[in-house]
Design brief:
alpha/beta; five-stranded mixed beta sheet; eight-stranded mixed beta sheet; binds FE2/S2 (inorganic) cluster; Ubiquitin-like (UB roll); FAD/NAD(P)-binding domain; 3 domains
């Protein structure tokens, strides 16, 4: 089962459904939950299937909880604070034993809630009332949201989004070439996969000595339709409207699920979630972890797991079906045509991330289907230029290692610097 690899050095306590949970100060609520050996963090909306955190990067919504009276907070993104009140939502009487999961057994094949009993007099009306009571995600907040300060308007020459391997390499290049930039990284530290991934041979990239690097800064929108282009950045609860001349996007992608029955059971994690738990939070999410999917990534992650004292099993196999009632306890896998069931208490899915192309699309870049990777990727020229004022680098262009992302960041950084130093408006 899951455990901490090191003792908690700065313990704090928060409340989960009335119970005390000890966390390392500043770690995400979901990480403390895993370290405490808990499995069901939420319930799915329709079938009330148990869910645990999957991606640990704010991309899957499996971890939505109510915190201090505010619904639908990402437990993998909110840092635990002393006295915080965390409640699991959408379950009766609670998320561990939810009687509404009967829906999953009764409608084990599927259930079209748009047409169920529609057109049957009286019953239709009753069903509508019942559905209204049961549907939705969370209850309304306890009190109105506090008034926010007005947005801060800023103007920058070059904006860089993402401080992972590609963004850091690009920023260093810009700094070396004497091009001023402002980098926005949503996490507390820059580094991305270089800090929390399992990649082998990834280069260490130091923060550039010059340049404006802003961490805890999430780019939530990009507006380029009317007037000068502008980023909407949320930082420390305040909205910043950042008008830019040139933009370099290196905001990567989100883990994807591999398709097999019961892939949503608690204990099934994206491979990057497992490496993040191990490297950033020193938490081993299971003792016997099935590491399945893309072989190179599986090998690197298996090495990380074994070096932390865990057992990596079924390494590189293809998942066929997960088993377990409240959390995964076994996985059927296929290896070169041989099918077997292996016992495990966690599963790590190694699959290419899906490019987070929305900002690039809003900036006017073309997004196309790549048949080889079976993903939508951002189109750009060989130096990363996607529009006259936008450059892209790293996994926005498709799956690649951290080393390849850093190389792409370097190339795009030079291309943008050439353009900026040549002068004129993009
Ligand atoms: S969004 Fe939190 S685990 Fe995926």
């Amino acid at each position: 089962m899951s455990r901490r690899l090191e003792p908690v050095t700065q313990p704090i306590t928060f409340e989960l459904d009335g119970e005390s949970i000890v966390a390392q100060a500043g770690e995400p609520v979901a990480a403390a939950f895993v370290a405490a050996g808990r499995s069901t963090l939420s319930r799915s909306i329709k079938y009330h299937r148990p869910r645990g955190a999957f991606c640990f990067s704010g991309g899957c919504a499996h971890c939505l909880v109510r915190i201090d009276g505010v619904p639908n907070q990402y437990a993998c993104q909110v840092r635990a604070k002393p006295g915080m009140r965390v409640e699991r939502q959408n379950a009766f009487p609670d998320a561990s034993i939810d009687v509404l999961q009967a829906t999953d057994f009764v409608f084990s094949k599927w259930f079209n809630h748009h047409e169920f009993l529609a057109g049957v007099p009286v019953v239709e009306k009753v069903m509508l009332e019942v559905a209204r009571k049961l549907a939705g995600l969370g209850l309304l907040p306890e009190k109105p949201a506090p008034a926010r300060e007005p947005a801060l308007v800023e103007h920058v020459g070059v904006a860089v989004v993402g401080g992972g391997a590609a963004g850091l390499a690009a920023a260093r290049t810009l700094a070396e070439r004497g091009v001023a930039f402002t980098l926005f990284e949503r996490e507390a530290r820059c580094g991305g996969r270089l800090l929390v991934g399992a990649d082998e041979g990834a280069p260490a990239i130091a923060l550039p000595a010059r340049g404006d690097v802003r961490t805890d800064a999430t780019v939530v929108g990009l507006f380029a339709d009317d007037g000068p282009p502008c980023l909407a950045v949320l930082r420390h609860e305040r909205l910043h409207l950042v008008f830019y001349e040139r933009l370099l996007l290196a905001n990567g992608g989100q883990p994807t699920l591999l398709t097999f029955p019961n892939n949503d059971l608690p204990g099934v994690y994206a491979s990057r979630a497992v490496s993040r738990l191990l490297r950033a939070h020193r938490i081993l999410p299971g003792q016997r972890i099935a590491v399945v999917g893309e072989p190179d990534e599986c090998r690197a992650l298996a090495k990380l797991i074994t070096s932390a004292g865990g057992d990596a099993v079924a390494v590189g196999a293809s998942p066929v079906r997960a088993h377990g009632l409240r959390r995964v306890d076994a996985l059927t896998v296929s290896t070169q045509g041989r099918v077997e069931k292996v016992a495990c208490d966690a599963v790590a899915l190694c699959a290419p991330v899906s490019p987070s192309f929305e900002l690039a699309r809003a900036a006017g870049a073309r997004v196309s289907w790549n048949a080889r990777s079976r993903l939508f990727v951002v189109e750009a020229d060989s130096r990363g230029r996607a529009t006259p004022s936008t450059w892209v680098a790293g996994e926005l262009r498709g799956p690649m290692s951290a080393a390849a992302s850093a190389e792409a960041g370097l190339v795009a950084g030079h291309a943008l610097a050439d353009d900026a130093l040549a002068g004129g408006r993009p």
